[in-house]
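task queued by scheduler; priority normal; single chain, no ligands, no partner chains; default sampling; output format set to structure tokens
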Amino acid sequence: MNGLPAEKAENKVVIIGGGFAGLAAAVDLTEKGLPVLLLERRSFLGGRAYSFTDKATGDVIDNGQHLMMGCYHHTLNFLSKIGSKDKLKFQANPQVNFLELAGEHSTHASFKCPNLPAPLHLLAGLMRLQTLNWTDKLKALNVGLALRKLNGDYSSLADITVREWLTGLGQSENIQHKFWDMMALATLNELPEIASADMLARVLEQGFLHSKEDSTMVISKVGLSDLYTTNARTYIESRGGRINLNADVVRLEFAGNRVSRIVLRSGEEIIPDAVISAVPYFVLRRILPAEVVESSDSLRHLNQFNSAPIVSINLWYQNHVMDSEFVGLIDSRIEWVFNKNAIIGNPQKRPQHLALVISGAHQVASLPKEEIIEIGVDEINRFFPFARHQQPIHAYVVREHDATLSHIAGLAKLRPGHTTDFENLYLAGDWTDTGLPATIESAVQSGQQCARLLLQ
């Protein structure tokens, strides 16, 4: 075997991947005193949820704008443990604002839930939503009743799409288009025509049927990397853990039913006692021997997973364009617009930095950058009058082609659990079988669950 001498340490747990899943696992393991070595292939931590500084403006750009919810209990626990929870902004009451065009003018509507116990707050919020007629509002109750009837058993929805489920519950084209579709795209990052209904049902149940606090929107006041990577690294290293950057794993080797060796691109070899893979499925299948994937019950579906992209368009305007922190656009090629100046707590800062999000962006992600920017500018001009007489002074496009797992109908039964056919290999990541769509919460939950299993 060529390469550097294999490294061996007492009871070493090796975590591959430095995103939310890997860092959450490392935090919980080092908290219990286990030696951990975390390997990250890039020169920085953050996985598919990171931020960077735009050279032209000095502003921080997220690789994809993330909204969290109060029901992200694992994530909030993780951020609290590492001392980052104060970097979040919590709504007092659940509220999401929308803009809809009426001729050349945009009209404002708000899904604002009053201070009532769940799920009454959700029903009251729907009744107040101006974009829906009363027939649609009353029929929306069918969704809540269906969730109650499911009582946590989503198996009957695993093989049908969001569109099929909502249509079967009597939801009109109007309410699907103006409300449910936007919620599905935001939470599942996939089109309702192909997205799995069980995932949307899980989101609705967790977010809206338990407590009012679970329904509130939570947003980071800082860039994603600043939110968690530095604090997590400090926590891990202060408790004896090690983090190696620029440590690109190219191969896992197996002996019997164990991972016997980790080979890095540098030639370094590591002999682990246990391995937590916290990388996306497309990275994992690249570092596993093909015969291992094909012969393993827990890994054989890796080749059946596909990704759904997210495109973010960052625009800077010299003059004021919008007031609210974020707003959903109805009948638009852009789903959400985030006012980054307001989010960071400096709404008067100029120029104004807007982050536009296109989820499930299969068609847009492959377009030339100039065309993507043109889409963003056109939609901002349509919905925001103050933008029509000015041009953005700067633009930056971020395409995450592998942003999330594509949650197509029937996928749930293929997602692997956290243990594998190999006694020392555990799987973490938002794509594993957490019972949630591929979100930050799913990633953190998976890492924490791997840590629990390993500690047992």
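post-processing summary
- DSSP finds 15 helices and 20 strands in the chain.
- The longest strand covers residues 394-405.
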